[in-house]
């Protein structure tokens, strides 16, 4: 009986290994984007998905699941089956929204621990961008005017506590200014708000504003980085102007936590190759956003540190329940 039990155990273990090493992928892969088309996540996802499709030899379909500043799409991805057939192009806001739930004392839609990083694709500072027909030529102009008329200058964002809202709140705290907030459902609608005249300012990764800056419709005043931005070396940082505002807007490919290691390896290897391909490099170059690739191990360590810092930022900002 012991011999039979041992044989059964060996067979069971062998079957388990076989299942764990099942071929991947054998069907289409969904890449969730938690925002509408036209924002940082979508602009990053589409060229990467197109190249991954070629490398993986299966369709990689971008699925836009917008709502609640990204929470709808993030929750969709977090609760999906961990089999590698649903991945997420996450933004920095994936770290922030669970902290916001804690702040308000409500159940979390998801937690950051439900994900594991595959690769960071890009990471840029945010830029304070204003309409070119406004009188503000410098950050000092903007701050001085904002202090003279608190609550009158309108800024748009991709949603409450989203990628464009957090750094603007950091700036308002640092500068002692008060702006009026017009939240939207994503980066595309946010940019439409300022281009349509419904807002005068945004805090955004330069990729979303580059074309309109080049066209003379928008103006860059300052950025949230600690080093000069290669494409715009003359734009000063907030820190160089005396404001303690530091923020990185990043996009990275992640998967549900329990996705099998061999599947993660396949996705890591394919993504590492994808970011070197002309389609991905060229798409980023058009948006003045260089690739800032990190492989899974480095990305996960960096992500944990960035998330911890942002958790403290959320506590400092406090509760923001509606348009200001």
List the helices and strands and how they pair.
Elements: H1 2-20, E1 29-33, H2 40-56, E2 60-64, H3 71-78, E3 86-91, H4 93-104, E4 115-131, H5 139-148, E5 154-157, H6 165-175, E6 180-183, H7 187-195, E7 201-205, H8 206-214, E8 218-223, E9 248-256, H9 261-274, H10 278-286, E10 294-295, H11 296-317
Relevant terms:
324 residues, alpha/beta, 11 helices
Number of strands: 10
Largest sheet: 10 strands, mixed
Percentage of residues in helical conformation: 40-55%
The poorly predicted ranges are none
In whole angstroms, the N-to-C terminal distance is: 73 Å
Q: Return the average pLDDT rounded to an integer.
A: 92
Helical stretch count? 11
What would the principal axes of the Cα set say about the shape?
A: globular
Q: Beta fraction of the residues?
A: 15-25%
| Element string (H = helix, E = strand) | HEHEHEHEHEHEHEHEEHHEH
What is the C-alpha radius of gyration, as a whole number of Å? Answer: 22 Å
From the helix content, strand content and strand pairing, which structural class follows?
alpha/beta
